Amino acid sequence: MTSTTSATPLSPENLAVIGETVPVPGYDRSAVTPGIVHLGVGGFHRAHQAMYLDRLMNDGKALDWGIRGIGVLPHDARITEVLQAQGGLYTLVLKAPDGSREPRVVGSVLDVTLAPEDPDAAIEVMADERIRIVSLTVTEGGYNIHAVTGEFDAQAPDVVADLADGALPRTSFGLVTEALRRRRDRGVPAFTIMSCDNIQGNGHVAHQVFVGFATLKDPELGAWIDQHVTFPNSMVDRITPGTTDADRAEVRDAFGVEDGWPVVCEPFTQWVLEDRFVQGRPPYEDAGVQVVGDVEPYELMKLRLLNAGHQALCYLGHLAGYRLVHEVAQDPLFAEFLLAYMEREGTPTLAPVPGIDLDAYRHELITRFSNGEVRDTVARLCAESSDRIPKWLLPVVRHQLATGGEFHRAAAVVAAWARYAEGVDEHGQPIEVQDRLAAQLTAAARRQAEDPTAFIADRTLFGDLVDDERFVAEYTTTLASLHAKGTRATLRDVVAR
Prior knowledge:
There is one protein chain. It is built from 22 helices and 13 strands. The protein has helices at residues 15-18, 43-47, 49-58, 77-85, 119-127, 157-163, 172-186, 202-217, 219-228, 245-255, 296-319, 325-329, 332-346, 358-369, 378-382, 385-392, 394-403, 408-420, 438-445, 459-462, 469-484, 487-496; strands spanning 8-9, 34-39, 66-71, 90-95, 101-106, 109-114, 133-136, 192-195, 234-237, 257-258, 263-265, 270-274, 290-292. The radius of gyration is 23 Å and the shape is globular. The termini are far apart.
């Protein structure tokens, strides 16, 4: 990297100047027309789906598949403002473990609309007949699915508000449903809804929630969407930490680009996508996407090894005093625990995965987690646990209980979450629990001294696990050890079993 004393603001007008030092779009962006609307234009979407499309465009393909973004939540205002000012452009920086950097300016995002500011404008973006795919990265919690029943929660306040007659939509369900209603009424064909979130069967879940919401709003419209909209499943993977001021400074100083919201990520990327699109799709396979008939083996592999593996590291790591993921993964004790979880508990729940060597995949995960250049935070992995643990880890526990397999490491992860949720680590430092259910989680966790099962008694999260004597015994033993011995001593005991 070279140091630069002055930086050029990122904008369409400045691409020629920036292109002297950083790769920029090699296609005429004025010739790109929209074909995709994406809800949730955060770091991951820009490191992943938008990047794949940019690859295609640089090869002269998919120029009629440009992305128009929609910010769904009020806190999307700042990133919307930045991307609007930059004409949708941003710098993507790949951070390799050896310290090298690979920057490029991505141009596949054309613009972004903030739905809370102008819902009608956001709806019309999707109602445009040129749009053939609406994709989503709205997080695991954005689908409004009850953690235990698996049903769409029609009683959520925002959903209730959107279902009211004459309501101006505020949820993704309301916005997309209204866009589809307008398309139907105008004789415009339906689009594909493509979920790119870390949920098992994300296409099936998207079908359930969008059709469910629409049916509650208008049964005839719900039936039309059920008949005309397709919902492909997908598995997405690329570690993408949140952008920091240090990242902005590095893009400015090392590459000479003044970018208000660059994206940094690891070099590894994977996308497995079911080929089910009602109005066609970009030739994703030409950009390295695995387009397949059945995504499930790949998604279960990722959810139960990578995503659940992150959970296996983050609570124990935070309690022990680590704040960066690579620090935890580079600790031999933690790495041994994680590898044993993946080999002995996560992998036995998986069917064979076509074309994947699972042993190599597990070890590659340890290497990826250990990449110190990415500087992914433990806090990011610990956030929104109530949406993650029930979807990623508890299915492993239930499978292993049902088949007589090992589950004590997964039980230890749940115990570490319960200990973490108390809000104070073992060094007496406060923990800020970032979770939509933070208040009730912390209240339950702080009752554990009197009632060791207080945390897992929440059946909305854990179902009937509190009734299983085998799980309760493993869980309470580890929780007691975390309080009495601390994290490292407890982990040594778990690893030694």
